Hints:
It contains 13 helices and 15 strands. It is α+β, with helices and mostly antiparallel strands.
Amino acid sequence: MKHTDISKVLKEKEFLGKEVTVCGWVRTFRESSSVCFLELADGTSFTKLQVVIDKSKIALDAECTRLGASVAATGEVVKAFKGDGVELNAEKIVLLGKCPPEYPIQKKRTTLEFLRGIPHLRLRTNTFNAVFKVRSVAAQAVHRYFHERGYYYVNTPIITASDCEGAGEMFRVTTAPWNAKAASEEEYFKNDFFAERAGLSVSGQLEGEVAAMAFSKIYTFGPSFRAEKSNTTRHLSEFWHIEPEVAFAELPDIIEIAEDMIKYLIRAVLNECPDEMTFFDNFMEKGLKDKLNHVLNSDFAVCDYTKAIEILKEAKADFRFPVEWGSDLQTEHEKYLTEEVFKKPVFVTNYPKKIKSFYMKQNPDGKTVAATDLLVPGIGEIIGCSEREADLDKLLSAMKERGMNLDSYEQYLDLRRFGSVPHSGFGLGFERFVMYVTGVENIRDVTLFPRWVGNVM
Ligand code: ATP
Ligand code: MN
């Protein structure tokens, strides 16, 4: 269909005084004795286009006035009667698709909870238009950031035989029929498609390291799958994962990269989504833009895990989970550190090796590893990061301590046998970043069709 995006009509001066056709969905309808006003949205811009219909010239089909109906409107672009924008003086309105009153999105501001029940329609609201604009702009900025700095973009496998975290929270991939009968696990997998246990990848890191040992700087940006039963506002079963892996980088180097990348992404969103960010500032999180500008203009804090434990022990807060050196930080602890103590993003470094993964570089103290999590206000952890153990013997001993099956990691171990180098990487949960910059509090509201335990609609 020959038509013009509403975003162009609103922004580009060249359309003023010209005739255009726009297509979209009716967002509001008002009328007076002599004119009607249709607000049209086609999703290409946050702002809608007002279409003015002179009743003496056009007999408007009542179906065109219904909320959610789709129409094509042709007319002249003129200076708006009010404000400094433009509007469309309609000469012709064509109904494309009717929308009966059962259309569930009726009021201007429906709750996010209600909208979660209609994921196929909720994208037509202002909030979701703004969220997905920001998400799209941020995704482009991720690629731009790494591309401009010479990283190779690699695609690591989604179906995999290795569970990167060893945590056993992998979804199984199988072709076995639902009622498959097998005498043993071994027999079951022998008859399966790959003739061994396979699952959906929880992280592209191990394969990312393979690529970094050849190309120095790589990143992946793809889906990760975790069958964890965490029914929280920051966990999904399927999320998008940004994972750079950098050779010849030690922990301080990768921390610098992570901070630089986060700031780059924030800047891109503020520059490219001004209307959306103002909307979030007004309706989602008061002071959001100030918060982000403050983040841009200050250094992220860095705090040793041991120090963080001391701070938490002295805190005058009622934590549900105990604080003890050697245990993992819970969300409440993470939020306390970043919201109450540092009041900005903070890297917590050098965690106890017992609570972290086998591949993390062991510190000389024998107790901690060169790992860091980036915590941000409102969410807690958004990045998990570490320098990787580059020493074959140390890596082997960490794997044996954990009772891992060394045979299935031969290729990974080869990276330490043949030209091993210091290297580091991190994983940023893309949805958590989008939550952080929009102020949206539930991860299910920054994802098209969120999946979580018991929910795959
Ligand atoms: P958490 O402690 O919050 O469960 P994690 O430590 O298990 O996270 P990592 O294995 O370090 O997560 O993964 C790297 C990043 O991926 C995390 O910092 C987070 O941003 C994101 N992430 C991890 N699990 C999920 C999930 N289930 N849903 C959305 N994002 C996730
Ligand atoms: Mn983590």
